[in-house]
Amino acid sequence: MLQVMDDLTTPASLTIYTDGSVDPATGAAGAAFVSGQTTKQWRLTDGASCLQAELVAIRGTLHHALESHSPHVIIHTDSKSSIQALRDTQSQDNIHLLTSTLLLAQRLAARGCKITLNWVPSHVGLSGNEAADRAAKSAAALPSPTTAVLPSLSQTLLKIKSASHALSRQQHEATVALSSPSPSWYAAATAYHPLPQDTSIPPHVRDRLHRLRLGFPCFEEIRQGDVDINCDHCQVTSPFAFQHYLLKCKATSHLRERLPPHPQPGHPGAAAAAAAVIRSVTLATLTSTVREYPPPR
């Protein structure tokens, strides 16, 4: 690695190390470059990503290069993602950062300056890289932002999704407070944890899992109201099909082996107890159960 870096360097070249840093605890972000005795730092607006911090640092080096009038600028970065983003001709995100950086590179190229963007591994003892790392962390700790960074498209979509989920849960909890049966079942059965995206679960089995988690009435219950439904696995009839399937059916007895005795289907607390059975077992156990013994429909 040192030999490669030496081969890039000439007496007339300007060598710069860049780095970006994000504090995961606070969301504060910093960017910096180090070139010889020169260090430049930027505190970014909170919530900036590591990629954005790295790009700000690279953009700052190009501004510095424009002032240096060096014929060859060598930028060492430990961010492969920033190099890839600058190479991507069809980027859909961080457009402002990328275009402003590339415009500076074009200005340097038009002046006859050669630009070398070189990846170096982090934390392997390269003094320039370590100095840039310290400077970026120090920049993130500055009291207030010095450089505004627009939210990326992915960050914006994530905020929208998060806000949508929060509102949806708030509305659902309000419905649970009114003792609505299906919302109450879902809250008790899932604790609002989403069903993991597991491609190994066939779609028809996944549909069965969703049915148990949602607790909607069976078709005959919807069509005829309170009606006895015959269990396909133990031939017992009950007007509370899902409760029977989870609390009393012999085919699913393994789901409740370690749980205390449950009330009879239809008795007070039976719905909450049935939903709690779903929540108490692993996804693998529940998946294998609904695969072999489908719940009522």
TrEMBL record:
Residue intervals of the RNase H type-1 domain: 10-141
EC number(s) given by UniProt: 3.1.26.4
Name of protein: ribonuclease H
Keywords: Endonuclease, Hydrolase, Metal-binding, Nuclease
GO biological process: DNA replication, removal of RNA primer
Pfam families in alphabetical order: RNase_H
SUPFAM superfamilies, sorted: Ribonuclease H-like (SSF53098)
PANTHER family named in the record: RIBONUCLEASE H1
Matches recorded under CDD domains: Rnase_HI_RT_non_LTR
Gene3D superfamilies in the record: Ribonuclease H-like superfamily/Ribonuclease H
Any one GO MF annotation of this record: nucleic acid binding
